[in-house]
Amino acid sequence: MPSRYRERLQENCNGQLVVTVDRDHCLLLYPLPEWEEIERKLVRLPSLNKQARRLQRLLIGHATEVELDGHGRILLPPPLREFAELEKRIVLIGQGNKFELWNEDRWSDRRNQWLTESDDEDGDLPEELGSLSL
Q1: Contact 20, 28 (CB under 8 A)
Q2: 61 lies in a domain?
Q3: Using CB atoms within 10 A as the burial measure, which of 16, 42, 84, 131 is most buried?
């Protein structure tokens, strides 16, 4: 974990994190309090909805608690490392309330794909983003 995040993670969650899988074949790394909020929302999803069950199984089913060691490192379980194909070179991407861990080659490929995609491929922006100015 980069040093600029370590102190804040120690203060906010005592170095306690949760790692789980993402549909983009990367790993999501949440501070424990953030994960607990996400988990509460996931558990409340309707269990008869096929997509909701799939999301619950993926995110909650793979959720694993990890802890920052004294050097700011975490030990990722082998099944999660294999899922995301994390080997020697990885990329850590900050996403506000979480981090993403990517295989460096996959990240470069996906980033380039996102940069070249047409804006209208996924349809209109969600209403919540309508007033966002970058």
Answers
A1: yes
A2: yes
A3: 84
